Structure prediction request, 95 residues.
Amino acid sequence: MYNFYEFLTEDDKSKRRWKNLKDNRMNLEPEEREKVLKAGAVWHHGPKGEPTTGVWKSKDKAGNTKYICNTHRACAIKDTLSAAITAFKFIKTTA
Prediction:
């Protein structure tokens, strides 16, 4: 788990890693999306407060899939969807 401010100010390598993850952002597969929604790892940012996924997917520089959840204060970068869903419970408290 990273303190988001420390993650982004740590060094240029961290900044490049975060930019790479954002640039390579991918849509969750329908099954993954359903799992996130069912687990309650959601933000209520949709029209009329509808839930949207609180976890997103990307590929790192090596081509490995990563699952990320973040706010402006903290982020969690995980190798599995289940781990990201678990991390979301803490990340949500930083909003």
About this structure: Residues 33 and 53 are 7 Å apart (CA to CA). The mean pLDDT is 88.
